[in-house]
């Protein structure tokens, strides 16, 4: 037998080392019967999502969207670290914010009528800061009752309503160069898939009744002016014959709920002719006035404590 040289021993040692490394790699790449190691497996997909509790939003619902969802939509966002519920017992509004001016907002109205009124109210406010008409689009999300996309101050925003749920998404400076419309529709689409909030009515809008009466019953033509809380605009009616009644529905605006003001005066002021007004909300008298000569006024604010 040929004697083993130092060179042979070195080669044999290298071969043994290579085999040992190969065995370690094989063991690391297998978990039992040849399956990938557990550390290489994707985490299980989430099967449940936070929902309203007793008909109210919770801060956990900010987790309806996460950084992975933004990434899959071609956008960038951190987890929402600022979560704010609307003040008051109703808790109808929720704001979720992360660095870079990324916002997710939710508002849960008790029924589709209230939802539509609140959606319109929001759009009137957003419209004041919206970009040119060429950057505005309506009805961009299939399956939603209403949707509106626009360039706004410091970013782009999509607002969507389904039933009583209104969802808003805002991209800030962290996402300047993305397809904002495609990303926003995909992300809000995920929100609507993950919660059924707003699809079942849990209440009604506020029912408002305004009345003006006279003494005598028909004292002559009357000019009436009232503040519409849905549009926050003054509405005027000239030369009205009494008694006069106006009924309309109002959304649940929470702490931002505008007041209601009602004024009435005789078109031609006359002695010994009196006017009286009243404001009723949900069958409860909000304000009324004592008879006043030629002029009367009532005012109040809807309570959101219910």
Automatic annotation (TrEMBL):
**Signal sequence range:** 1-28
Q: Which InterPro entries match?
A: MmpS_C (IPR038468)
Question: Is the keyword Signal in the record?
Answer: yes
Q: Which keywords label this protein?
A: Signal
Annotated region Disordered: the residues are 33-55
Q: Does the keyword Nucleotide-binding apply?
A: no
Q: What is this protein's name? A: Lipoprotein
Species this protein is from: Actinoplanes friuliensis DSM 7358
């Amino acid at each position: 037998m040929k004697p083993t040289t130092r060179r042979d021993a070195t080669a044999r040692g290298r071969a043994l080392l290579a085999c040992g490394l190969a065995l370690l790699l094989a063991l690391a790449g297998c978990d039992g019967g040849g399956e990938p190691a557990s550390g290489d497996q994707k985490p299980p997909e989430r099967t449940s999502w936070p929902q309203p509790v007793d008909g109210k939003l919770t801060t956990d619902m900010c987790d309806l969207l996460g950084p992975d969802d933004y990434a899959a939509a071609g956008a960038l966002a951190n987890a929402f670290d600022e979560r704010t519920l609307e003040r008051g017992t109703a808790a109808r509004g929720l704001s979720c914010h992360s660095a870079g001016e990324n916002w997710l907002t939710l508002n849960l109205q008790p029924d589709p009528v209230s939802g539509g009124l609140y959606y319109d109210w929001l759009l009137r406010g957003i419209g004041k800061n919206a970009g040119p008409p060429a950057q505005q689009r309506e009805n961009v999300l299939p399956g939603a009752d209403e949707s509106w996309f626009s360039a706004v101050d410091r970013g782009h925003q999509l607002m969507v309503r389904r039933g009583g749920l209104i969802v808003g998404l805002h991209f800030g400076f962290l996402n300047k160069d993305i397809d904002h419309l495609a990303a926003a529709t995909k992300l809000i689409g995920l929100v609507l898939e993950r919660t059924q909030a707003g699809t079942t009515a849990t209440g009604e809008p506020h029912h408002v009744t305004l009345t003006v009466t006279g003494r005598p019953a028909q004292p002559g033509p009357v000019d009436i002016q009232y503040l519409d809380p849905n549009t926050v605009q003054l509405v005027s009616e000239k030369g009205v014959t009494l008694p006069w009644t106006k009924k309309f529905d109002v959304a649940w605006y929470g702490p931002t709920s505008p007041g209601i003001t009602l004024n009435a005066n005789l078109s031609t002021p006359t002695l010994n002719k009196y006017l009286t007004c009243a404001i009723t909300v949900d069958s409860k008298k909000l304000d009324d006035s004592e008879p006043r000569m030629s002029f009367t006024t009532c005012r109040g604010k809807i309570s959101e404590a219910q």
